[in-house]
Structures are given as C-alpha cells and as structure tokens.
Design a protein that fits this description.
- With 488 residues, the protein is α+β, with helices and mostly antiparallel strands.
- Helix 2 packs antiparallel against helix 7.
- The strands form three sheets. Strands 2-3-4-1-8-11-10-9-5 form a nine-stranded antiparallel β-sheet. A five-stranded mixed barrel has the order 12-13-14-16-15. A two-stranded antiparallel sheet has the order 6-7.
- Strand 13 and strand 14 form a beta hairpin.
- The chain folds into two domains: 357 residues, Thiol Ester Dehydrase, Chain A; 97 residues, Beta Barrel (OB fold (Dihydrolipoamide Acetyltransferase, E2P)).
- The chain is 24% helix and 27% strand.
- The longest helix is centred in the middle third of the chain and has 16 residues.
C-alpha cells in the first residue's frame, strides 16, 4: 500500500494562517461561466431535481421570473475553492453558509472571488489533528451585481492518521431487502412540490413540517451524475488524459497509484472503496456540495415559484457512504418580517437509514403575502361505471402513471404523459399528485402493457385525471405529440 506522508504541521498551518484575508488567485477555470440552458439542465439532473422553473421554458415564461432560472447551488459549479494549502492532506467538505441576493437567470454570466476567511484547529475522531479551512466566495453576474456569497468549510486531515484512528471499524455496509427498496422508492416518489400554487406567509404556521425529500440509496451513478453537472467546480483533478498528465507533472503530489499501479486522482474516494479506505474511510462516499444541494431542493420545492430561498446554513455531520439513504427534513421555527418582506426560518436536518444525523442546518426564505391571479383548474368530470374497481393510490410515478398500495402500477388509458424531464412532464406529474395521490381511485383495466402493468381508465371523486391533465397542458400552451395524446 502506498504511504501518505503527513502534511499538517505547525509550520504548514502557520503558512496557511498567513493567507487569511488574501484573495485566492489561480489559473483554474470554473466549470461553468454562465447559466446556459445546458448548464442548468445538467446541474438539475445531477441533483435529481426536475423543477420546471429550471427546465421548462413554456412553464418558466409564465412565472414571475419571465424565463428559466437556475437551482441556487449551481454556483458551486461557477467557483469552488476548498482545497488550497496543506498538500496531500485529505479534505472533507464540512458545510456551507449561503446567502442569495437575487435569482440566477438563464444566461447570467458569473465571476467569483475567493478569500481565506479563517483557519481553525481541533482534535477529531476521524483523523486526529484536523484543520478547518473556511473560505468566503462572492459571486457576481455580468452587470456586477452580487448574486450570492458563501462561506465554505473544509476539514483537512492526514490520511495516515485517519487510517490509524479506525473511526468506522465497526460499521457494516448496508444491504437492503427488496421490501426495504420498495418502501424507500415509494417515499422518493411521494415527495411533493408547491409549484405555481402560492404558499402564502399568512397560511404558514410555526411547527409546519416540510414534505420529506428522500435521496438514495445513493449509487456510484448518482455521484457521477452530480459530477457531470457540478464538474468539481472546475477542479483540475477532473481533467483527463494528457491534461491530467500535465497537471500531475506540475503537481507531483496530486495523484496516487491505484491497485493496478496507475496514478489516479484523489477524487476517486467518491467511487472507489480501495482509495477511500486508504484515506481512513470504509467505502466510497458522496460529495459534500451534492448533499447541500439536496437541502436547497428541499427548500425550493417547499417555497414554490413565488417564494425565494435567501439564506441556508448547512453542516455535514457524518459521511454518506455509497448505499446510504438520506431522508431530508425540515420544519418552520420562526415567522418574521424585515421591511416589506415576509420571511420564515426553517430548521433543516437529514438522517440516514442508520438513524445518524447526516445534516443539520437552518434556512430563511421569503414567501408571498398575496396570491397572484391564475386560471382555476378545469376538472373533467365523468361518472365511473358501476363495475369499476377501487384502490388507494400510494404514489404518482409521472403524469400518466400511478402506483397503488399493493404495488400494482396503473397507466392511464386515455393519456400517455410526457417524461418528467420533457416539456410539460413535471407539470403533468405535479397535477397528477394533486388529483390522486393518497386518494381512493376507481379504475377499469383495459389491458396490460409490455411490462405487465395495467392500462386502465381511472377516476377519482368523479373526475378523469387523465383528461383533466391533458386539458390543462393544452391550455398552458404545450403541444402534445401523438404518443402523448394517445398510446405510447
């Protein structure tokens, strides 16, 4: 096994502290320099967020923003500065304190400046002597307006010390039963978003719970998908082939050999158990910004289109290993006003399947005090036949498919909805949830599809959800394909 030399010494810490207050100047490019449609889509997909404000131009044009906006944490891709100094020391992203001053609009261009804000020291359970680096990053748009500021915290520890500590020696890798997977997946699909129905400040009460957002069990695919959207923030470790080789020649400590004797990047702790173990961790694990992005999604899903996430302070309390499931939760703890703004403060936390606290934090958001006029939903009423079967809908898959409590899948016979990542798809799914989720539906099976699911006519409370959703999409200006209008 390749040895990792210790790098955290009184001398290296003193050198780091001498840089406090100085701007970090380097020649690394950020992963993105503008919030193009592609960049927004890749980041949203990477965090598993299909909010139509980010992805659906037809929908976004009719919002108060007049066009696409971006998930708040996309700025991680526009400048991410956390591993500087203490060469060779392992780094764990420990949290971030964000403040957003304005929405991030499509085609906004970014510049960022980073400063070392503080250096703290502690004795940790992971790697003995540990250093906490706190960086401040300010992000501006093309007109010089400040979009957001963030304090990013990183824990640095010697890998050799972390190996010898054995903090995770007794931890067992999670193995799930089929039933456990079904239960988790149902919770994933049961999550709801506020969307274009305003969440009024007057209607919110202290103690209100946010709809839980479940992520996982996390796989290597989930980690790679986030990397594709985030890109390490422009981290040169993610360069490939000759670019990576040149970087390694310039920085000889930037790579270590894998079991095949090939020099490879430290970031592989996120997808290779072997290298994670050499860094003092039992298995590959998630990315810190990834989990923080999930907490921002918890908030943006809850505040809806007419709210705005202003602040978020998140601490990562434990490591999420590949195979872990994260249950993101929140509750309202305070309502207050500042000037003309009506604000709420929420307590945030996340737990894994072992009951360990993976995240804790707070967030502040503004909410509307009045509801803008929007067309009322027109329900297509229809009486189901006397022989229709009844069952409770446990969750919604998309705008044209639901799952019953016994696990039976029903596809609407009258309407094959667009995929949730396609125009109109997320809108259709959201409407389907409002119509049928957790309700008893009546249905008449027509046939089975190629996967053995029933294609059926479905009603709820005397309403045809399929025809109601299709009518609503057409009224919103979506052009449905032949497959969407009929069979697909």
């Amino acid at each position: 096994m390749e040895k990792h030399a210790g790098t955290i010494t009184d001398e290296t810490v003193a050198q780091l502290r001498a840089q406090i207050g100085e701007e970090l100047v380097g020649n690394d490019q950020p992963y993105i320099e503008a919030a193009g449609k592609d960049a927004i889509r890749h980041f949203a997909f990477g965090m598993g967020d299909f909010n139509p404000l980010w992805l659906d131009e037809t929908y976004a044009k009719k919002s108060r923003f007049g066009g696409l906006t971006a998930p708040p944490c996309i700025l991680y891709a526009a400048g991410y500065h956390r591993h500087h100094g203490l060469r060779g020391a392992h780094g764990l992203h420990a949290g971030g304190t964000w403040e957003w001053y304005r929405p991030i609009r499509v085609n906004d261009q970014f510049t960022s400046k980073c400063y070392l804000s503080d250096v703290k020291e502690k004795q940790g359970r992971f790697g003995g002597r540990e250093i906490i680096q706190i960086w401040r990053v300010d992000y501006k748009n093309q007109t010089g307006e400040l979009i957001a500021s963030c304090f990013m915290w990183t824990i640095r520890a010697d890998r050799s010390a972390a190996q010898s500590k054995g903090k995770y020696a007794d931890l067992q890798k999670q193995v799930y039963t089929d039933q456990q997977i079904r239960d988790i997946e149902r919770q994933v699909m049961h999550h709801t978003e506020q969307g274009d129905i305003p969440r009024l400040w007057s209607q919110v009460q202290v103690g209100d719970a946010l709809p839980p957002l479940v992520k996982g069990p996390i796989t290597t695919n989930d980690i790679i998908a986030y990397c594709m959207g985030w890109g390490g923030g422009g981290n040169p470790y993610h360069y490939s082939h000759s670019l990576n080789l040149i970087y390694r020649r310039q920085h000889p400590g930037a790579a270590t050999k894998n079991p095949q004797g090939i020099p490879d990047i430290p970031a592989r702790v996120h997808w290779e158990d072997d290298y994670a173990q050499r860094s003092g961790l039992p298995w590959a694990y998630d990315l810190g910004p990834q989990r923080i992005s999930w907490m921002s999604q918890l908030m943006t899903d809850w505040v809806g289109d007419d709210g705005f996430l202003k602040k978020m302070d998140v601490q990562l309390r434990s490591v999420n290993f590949v195979g872990d499931t994260t249950f993101c939760k929140g509750e309202v703890v305070r309502k207050f006003t500042e000037g003309d703004e009506a604000l709420v403060e929420c307590r945030l936390w996340a737990e894994n399947q072992r009951g360990e606290k993976a995240v804790q934090g707070t967030a502040v958001a503004s909410l509307p005090q009045s509801a803008p006029a929007r067309p009322a939903l027109r329900l297509v009423r229809e009486t189901p036949p006397s022989g229709a079967q009844s069952a409770k809908c446990a969750c919604v898959v998309d705008g044209g498919m639901i799952e019953m409590e016994d696990g039976t899948g029903l596809r609407y016979e009258e309407f094959h909805a667009p995929s949730v990542w396609a125009p109109g798809g997320a809108v259709a799914r959201r409407l389907n949830q409002r119509l049928v989720q957790d309700k008893v539906v009546q249905f008449v099976p027509v046939r089975k599809d190629q996967y053995g699911r029933f294609v059926a006519k479905v009603w709820v409370d005397g309403v045809s959800p399929a025809q109601t959703i299709q009518q609503d999409l057409l009224a919103r200006g979506y052009r449905l394909s032949a497959a969407d209008e009929g069979e697909g």
